[in-house]
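Record Endonuclease/exonuclease/phosphatase family protein, 375 aa.
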Amino acid sequence: MKFFKMTYMALALGTNLICAALMVIASYGYLISPIRSVVPSYLGLAFPFFLIANIIFIIFWALQRKWWFLISLIVLLACNRSINDYTPFHRTAKEQASKDSLTILTYNVNSFDALTPHTHEHPNKIIEYIARSGADIVCMQEFACGDDRSMISEKQIDKGLSDYPYHIFSEKSKTPYSKSGIACYSKYPIIESREIVFGNSTYNSSWLYKINVNGRILTLINNHLESNKFTSGDRELYQYMIKHLETNMLGQFKERLVQKMGVAYKLRSIQAEQIANEIKNAGENIIVCGDFNDIPQSYTYRKVRGKLNDAYVATGFGPGITYNKNMFWFRIDHILYGKTLKAVSTHIGDIKASDHYPVKATLVWNDNIENKNNP
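=>
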């Protein structure tokens, strides 16, 4: 019996050490570019599992009255920033929004729910949601419209979002019947716009806008970074693997999903570096938002975020999942902002008309910060 207990404890300790090490790699893997190695990026996806495992080990060793609980406790303290980025705990907004506040909505609209038309009798749910959101500026990804009467048209979208007189739709791809890309709809004048050109992508894009917000010139970067390009079959395979944990399908999983993810990680890392260079020259009146297709533990997210603040991390509660299909439960849609702004609330909508949830943040101007790089 004593030998069995010692073996059991040794196995538990060994597992604890492995989970602790993996937690550290998942937390700090963003320091390694996917160009050098994609392994830390894959481990980052498992961050919540490593977090839960280490919490369980703390409780387990405390009940056993073993000092080994310090292993996971020290690891959690060392990974505190990543934990807070993954699941912040803010129960209420720190302060109320003022008349001078600015509300931003970012939403991957997924072709407006398969190009569903928007009419007075049968409104498109996504258009209806945005129109009622109260947002001052709306950034959309996978914005699409068609020429066929059975599809939502750009005219229908503009009419449904008539509260936004300033808007730019930037076409990225086109079929004989429809076109898609990225769009910004604003209640304030858009005085300048240009694409941040990605030489490595034919579908995804980022756009930089200059917006005059009551005399303040705001730089806004709207992003749809490299997609994993999973097919419906790939998503079904992933969902089946998660539910059944069948090891005999690992080869197929690696061939179909892991390889695509590896390519996308590398492409996104290059795109993130381009965006980071734009941010350096933009001053502090800046908001960077959109579908990053990457989580807070990723190289892409950290590279883009840099010294910016994250609205959800500053005001949100819990993991804040923004993707809602096929058990891909991650926060990949983000709103970042510079020092002259301060987030007072962030809300993730629960509408499921798209495969993404919308993210809305209300910010106030921090006039105590001098912005030397903006007029």
